[in-house]
Design a protein that fits this description.
The complex is a heterodimer of chains A (418) and B (162).
Chain A lengths: L4 H9 L10 E4 L3 E5 L4 H10 L10 E5 L8 H16 L4 E4 L4 H7 L8 E4 L13 E4 L2 H10 L2 E4 L3 E7 L8 H12 L8 E5 L1 H5 L2 H9 L8 E4 L3 H9 L18 E6 L6 E3 L7 E3 L10 E5 H4 L2 H11 L9 E5 L3 H9 L2 H7 L3 E2 L20 E4 L15 E4 L2 H10 L10
Chain B lengths: L3 E7 L6 H4 L9 H5 L10 H4 L5 E4 L11 H8 L4 E4 L4 H10 L3 E3 L10 E5 L4 E4 L4 E4 L8 H6 L2 H10 L1
Parallel strand pairs in B: 1-2, 2-3, 3-4
Antiparallel strand pairs in B: 1-5, 5-6, 6-7
The chains are: A alpha/beta (418), B alpha/beta (162).
């Protein structure tokens, strides 16, 4: 019987030899990730009332990243409550102010190929770049996972998105991810798994692949997946934790739909306010005056992102009309970007480098937007009110486009600086 | 579970979680957050809910974040049920888990203010104002028990007692 990658992982997680799309299965997650916004602050009392015992504490990772570092007393109290709960319940790992949860799960070796990862954050699908099934759950559902070690899931149909060809100058994974979302639509993959394949994806480094799986949820998907290969193996070897199961989809696995994209034809792309599927070539919006340029988040704050931004900003200056904020996705990314000189280049150019965290992406800390302000960001959502004021506008684009726009103080095609 | 009666409060497609439950207020209590529900597109939401208590919406309701505060702030505003053309999956699960009934249905012919009777289990919605009846999709059978118990917490508590 033929299975997709998504079906194989859920078969393993539910202890079955075969599952198919539409089946309801009870699964045992390998990793349960909880963050400061939607974790103990919501369920701690109920957890206690229900016996207060985690079924598999070693599988639980708790991360303070949304209110990090805290900007208000309320946020500090959220982090405090999260920390006390994590330490009091002997969870597998607790991180505070070390970065955004999805990157910390990768950096810390909490995701192995073939795993089922559940998290209280919609971008838990990021895990799919390592061949793991990552999906988001609410706080109450997480409470159930903690107490029982199980969760029911409907096995999703899969859409296969094949990207072939190579990027031309000035084009990155973010452009391709936005292009895909523009085509599939805001809710086009609801309840489904989106598997990304093709020669382009195979040739991309892991940190660019993570952009595709991270943004799968912006099409409504339950998870995003990429076939795990030697690049995933090399990374896991480098952190000394290569212990997964490298499932791949069978040749005749059933896909609901197969979409083909050619990277060669792709130009720098953006999503205009206020939907992620509101996708156009950057040239359509060139000249729109900006207040803020933001390079960071679990979507656009990794090493390749800063290397690319540094390439554009080297020897140039950020316009005095805007502020350009750099928010590395994790402490590890911060250190590597520093070691390779990227942070120096960005600072020389006039960028402001912040602590690794969720930052302003969700409107929490470090650079939220005021009324009527316009921002271009390498993050993942441009919804009304997402980065602060409901009267602000957010454009989503690649780190190269954001960097180029920072120099000009207005939306700018990065090819002008390459 | 008894059918739910109320009046329709209508919105369009793609109402996301940043509109329903803006991130900027998530450090506050649910009651305080509820005062800001839907303010991105409707400043009068918290007034309207005093008269209109069944949300009737379009496609992809609740897309975006996994924040459970989205259904929670609607419930805190006395929304009794949500009828949508389609739901984002995480909102759908969260709504069930916190005990906010959801029904999938073609909502095109329902107007704001229409008096509705929603049967969550069968997915049937009666429009008393227009004298019409619509057949939608109710709660799937495997999660029926959660809704009947009121929420996943109540369900887990009952299970622990048994």
């Amino acid at each position: 019987m033929q299975m997709t990658l998504a079906e194989k992982i859920l078969a393993r997680a539910s202890g079955k030899s075969f599952v198919k799309a539409g089946d309801i299965v009870f699964c045992k997650p390998d990793t349960a990730m909880i963050h400061d916004l939607l974790g103990p602050v919501i369920f701690a009392d109920d957890f206690k009332e229900l016996g207060g015992k985690i079924k598999h504490p070693e599988r639980v990772v708790v991360i303070a990243d949304h209110s990090a570092p805290p900007a208000t007393v309320e946020q500090a109290n959220m982090v405090k409550k999260t920390r006390e709960w994590a330490w009091g319940n002997n969870v597998g790992e607790f991180y505070q102010f070390k970065g955004a949860c999805h990157q910390l799960l990768v950096d810390g070796g909490h995701i192995s190929p073939g795993n089922l990862v559940v998290g209280t954050d919609s971008h838990t699908c990021t895990a799919g770049a390592l061949g793991a099934f990552g999906t988001d759950v609410g706080s109450t559902e997480m409470l159930g996972v903690l107490l029982t070690g199980e969760i029911w899931l409907r096995v999703p149909e899969s859409i296969l998105v094949n990207w072939v060809g190579e990027f031309s100058l000035g084009v990155m994974a973010k452009d391709a991810a936005l292009k895909t979302i523009g085509k599939v639509g805001h809710g086009g993959a609801t309840y489904m798994a989106v598997e990304f394949g093709g020669s382009l994806i195979r040739n991309l480094p892991l940190d660019e692949r993570l952009v595709f799986t991270n943004m799968a949820v912006e099409m409504g998907a339950k998870t995003g997946l990429i076939k795990p290969d030697e690049k995933v193996g090399d990374f896991l070897d480098s952190i000394g934790k290569n212990d997964g199961e490298y499932f791949i989809s069978d040749d005749n696995a059933a896909y609901r739909e197969v979409l083909e994209f050619d990277a060669t034809k792709l130009t720098p792309t953006l999503a205009a306010p206020h939907e992620v599927d509101n996708v156009y070539p950057v040239t359509d919006y060139e000249g729109q005056v900006l207040d803020q340029c933001y390079i960071g988040s679990c979507t656009g704050g990794r090493l390749t992102d800063f290397a690319s931004a540094a390439k554009i900003l080297k020897g140039r200056k950020v316009s005095k009309k805007v502020r350009c904020l750099i928010v590395p996705a994790s402490e590890k990314v911060w250190r590597e970007a520093s070691k390779l000189g990227y942070l120096d280049i960005l600072a020389e150019a006039g960028c402001v480098i912040s602590a690794p965290a969720c930052g302003a992406c969700g409107g929490f800390t470090n650079g939220v937007l005021g009324d009527g302000e316009r921002c271009i960001s390498s993050s993942n959502r441009n919804f009304i009110g997402r980065m602060g004021s409901k009267k602000a506008e957010v454009f989503l684009a690649s780190p190269m486009t954001v960097a180029a726009s920072a120099i000009a103080g207005m939306i700018t095609d990065p090819r002008n600086f390459l | 579970m008894k059918p739910i009666s109320g009046k329709a409060l209508k919105y369009g497609d793609n109402i996301n979680t940043d509109i329903i439950s803006p991130g900027a207020y998530m450090q506050l209590s649910i009651e305080k957050q509820a005062e800001h529900a839907m303010e991105g597109i409707d400043d009068d939401f918290t007034t309207k809910v005093k008269f209109l208590d069944i949300m009737v919406v379009g496609e992809n309701f609740g897309s975006g974040s996994s924040r459970e505060t989205a259904p929670l702030v609607l419930k805190a505003n006395n929304i009794k049920a949500i009828v949508a053309k389609s739901f984002a999956r995480i909102f759908y699960r969260n709504a069930i888990n916190i005990g906010l009934p959801v029904v999938e249905l073609d909502t095109s012919s329902i107007d704001e203010g229409d008096e509705l009777v929603v049967d969550v289990l069968t997915g049937k919605v009666e429009n008393l104002t227009k004298g019409e009846e619509y057949q939608g999709v109710g709660i799937p059978s495997h999660v029926l028990k959660i809704i009947e118990d009121g929420s996943l917490k109540a369900y887990l508590k009952n299970k622990a007692r048994q």
